[in-house]
TrEMBL record:
Residues 31-135 form the 7,8-dihydro-6-hydroxymethylpterin-pyrophosphokinase domain. Pathway: Cofactor biosynthesis; tetrahydrofolate biosynthesis; 2-amino-4-hydroxy-6-hydroxymethyl-7,8-dihydropteridine diphosphate from 7,8-dihydroneopterin triphosphate: step 4/4. Its EC number is 2.7.6.3. Pfam families: HPPK (PF01288). This is 2-amino-4-hydroxy-6-hydroxymethyldihydropteridine diphosphokinase. Gene3D superfamilies: 7,8-Dihydro-6-hydroxymethylpterin-pyrophosphokinase HPPK. Signal peptide: none annotated.
């Protein structure tokens, strides 16, 4: 189903800061979702909204302890999940970021309140890990090519990925590889 994930090697990807890619047209995206407050409500809502953007593929939802928790200050566990979306139609990275912020607001995410309290209640966090862009120009000349090539780019501000993000992305890659006929 998602053959453009096949052979994706995270170690070989170009890394760019999101600020450098704002106007870049994105044809597919890999996301990390996270919630430590009412995840059973907010994750299904966001998955439904994400499905309106194109074909989606989901990793297993992982429950993880908050890495900033301590014995002195326990914190709620996070539920994390990775999502692949083949966008239809393509969107700019800037449009995607605005869309995902809106989805977080729909889940009543309040970043200002989170900053003021030691134990953050995160209803929904949507992070862009990787984007797929289309290169329409031949690298040896400025002529348009008849067959555009696709390129995955990892968001430099998210690299290296957290353990649960790496696990989710690798699961999505493995699922894509197993569904493609040899």
């Amino acid at each position: 189903m998602h053959k453009n994930l096949v052979d994706l090697n995270l170690d070989d990807l170009k890394k760019c800061l999101p600020e450098q890619l704002q106007k870049q047209s994105v044809t597919a995206v890999l996301l990390a979702l996270g919630s430590n407050y009412q995840a059973d409500t907010h994750l299904p809502h966001v998955r439904k909204r994400l499905a309106t953007l194109g074909q989606i593929q989901l990793s297993t939802a992982f429950q993880n302890p908050d890495f900033t928790a301590s014995l002195e200050q326990p914190k709620p566990d996070y539920t994390n999940q990775c999502v692949y979306i083949a966008l239809t139609p393509a969107m700019t990275l800037q449009q995607l970021q605005q869309t995902f912020k809106q989805y977080e607001r729909e889940c009543h995410r309040q970043r200002s309140t989170e900053r003021q309290t030691p134990v953050k209640k995160v209803t929904m966090d949507i992070d862009i890990l990787l984007i797929q862009t289309v290169l329409n120009k031949n690298s040896l000349s400025d002529k348009q090519t008849s067959k555009p090539s696709r390129q995955w780019i990892i968001m430099a501000d998210r690299y290296p990925l957290k353990a649960h993000e790496t696990a989710g992305v690798k699961e999505l890659i493995a699922d894509a590889s197993s569904t493609v006929a040899p």
